[in-house]
Design a protein that fits this description.
This protein has 440 residues and is of the alpha/beta class. The protein contains 14 helices and 15 strands. Strand 5, helix 6 and strand 6 form a beta-alpha-beta unit.
């Protein structure tokens, strides 16, 4: 904690507000450990329960996280954390960022001659009919129907869908561990979150039933490439989830299929088991994070609300971006690039998963960019791997229940180094395994 910043306050509200200001202004940096409850209570002259309530409120809002021996720390990213990129020290192999490999992305510049670029006008802006027709055919191939629209990426679709159906203070059931950006969005918007444990086949149906019985009004799940686990909803799991949802027709379901175009696993749709639902597929993973465009299918009323709310705000997704997606979908070179990328990502993930299994370590992950590896002490594992030359992400960034694990991003992993990485992970999880091998 910066020596120049003093946490103040006599109530839980004042203490949490003081910490939020410190985080927002950069005085309490990401990863910084806050004073223990008893220590801060003594410094402020308040009861420990008051500080505990402040910390709990901050945790619910996604400002801090609790990680066992690490204590209460400022999250790496939240609605109150100054923006910035993840910094990987020189000489450390990046297995933490979870970004697509730039070398596997299609060349969007080559598509420019095929892109319709016009000035447009305020009257005619909106979803491009040609893009919607192409998306409708693609979705139909995966068994997805509904009414279609376009949003500025997956998070934009999720935010607009929730705003169309819920009120701040409502509870949303989310996967646990879960995509931290999505969780932070929910918390910053004032929703409560209810964790639903996931495994390699998707969310636990019994836990989803408990969450909905307890009053959750919405449920968000990931079809394939679940972040952080790499799981994918299986056919049997989808059927079980649909059965649960059929008993709660008032619940709003959002399904994120961000890995759709890259996935080697088939889609087993869950969302449309509900009366009100939204299915979103972003263009960012296959074509690049800067292509902020996502196709959305939904029940007619939800689609109308989402598109209508957009019309009253910034209007529509840029027609230029929409035409880039059209060009990419119609270009044979781009199609081949996406197919190749999907195959390469699958090989990289499989190589490390099998190398870990050879050393007695189980890891989630059959699709996507990540593997989820349970460990006895994630802080010790992260530090050990850093010392061995590898950066991985601690599980506390993603787990609402404090599950001890590490997330290893395989999107840019050199397959030839899978065994060496697995050795380092095994040593970090169990020092008796032997010293970790540095990268070469």
């Amino acid at each position: 904690m910066s020596v120049h910043y003093q946490i103040t306050g006599a109530s839980a509200n004042e203490i949490s507000a003081s910490i939020e200001v410190g985080v927002r202004d950069g005085h309490l940096e990401p990863g910084r450990t806050l004073p223990s409850v008893r220590k801060l209570a003594a410094e402020l002259g308040v009861a420990p329960g008051t500080v505990g309530a402040a910390y709990r409120r901050l945790r619910e809002r996604g400002v801090v996280e609790t990680g066992g021996r690490a204590g209460t720390t400022v999250r790496e990213r939240s609605a109150f954390t100054p923006s910035g990129s993840l910094v990987i020290p020189e000489g450390i192999v990046d297995l933490a960022s979870g970004e697509p490999d730039p070398d596997l992305l299609p060349d969007l510049v080559s598509l420019k001659p095929r892109v319709v670029i016009g000035h447009g006008n305020y009257r005619d802006g909106g979803p491009c009919p040609v893009l919607l027709d192409l998306a409708r055919d693609r979705f139909a191939d995966d068994g997805v129907g509904g009414d279609l629209t376009v949003t500025s990426g997956a998070l934009d679709a999720i935010e607009r869908g929730l705003a169309a159906r819920l009120e701040p203070g409502d509870t949303v059931a989310v996967e646990d561990p879960t995509w931290s950006n999505g969780r932070d969005l929910l918390l910053s918007a004032g929703y409560h979150v209810k964790p639903v444990p996931v495994d390699a086949e998707g969310p636990d149906p019994a836990e989803l039933d408990r969450a909905l019985t307890a009053g959750a009004r919405a449920f968000i799940l990931t079809s394939r490439g679940q972040n952080p686990t790499g799981g994918a909803v299986s056919e049997a799991r989808a059927a079980a989830l649909r059965e649960v949802l059929s008993a709660y027709r008032g619940v709003f379901v959002i399904e994120d299929d961000h890995w759709g175009e890259l996935s080697q696993a088939p889609l087993h749709l869950v969302a449309d088991a509900a009366e009100r639902w939204l299915f979103v597929r972003s263009a960012s993973k296959p074509y690049g994070p800067d292509l902020r465009c996502a196709l959305v299918a939904a029940d007619p009323d939800t689609k109308a609300r989402v598109q209508g709310r957009m019309t009253l705000g910034h209007g529509w997704v840029s027609g230029i971006l929409q035409h880039f997606v059209i060009a990419a979908w119609e270009d044979e070179d781009a199609k081949r690039a996406v197919e190749r990328a999907g195959s390469v990502y699958a090989r990289r993930q499989t190589a490390l998963r099998e190398a870990l299994a050879d050393r007695g370590l189980s890891a989630f992950g059959r699709t996507g960019l990540n593997l989820w590896v349970p460990v006895p002490d994630e802080t010790a594992a992260v530090v050990s791997l850093r010392d061995a030359g590898y950066a991985v992400a601690p599980g506390r960034s993603y787990s609402l229940r404090g599950e001890q694990a590490i997330r290893i991003s395989t999107g840019r992993l050199d397959e030839a180094q899978a065994d060496r990485v697995a050795e380092a992970v095994a040593a970090s999880a169990d020092p008796a395994f032997g010293p970790a091998s540095p990268p070469v």
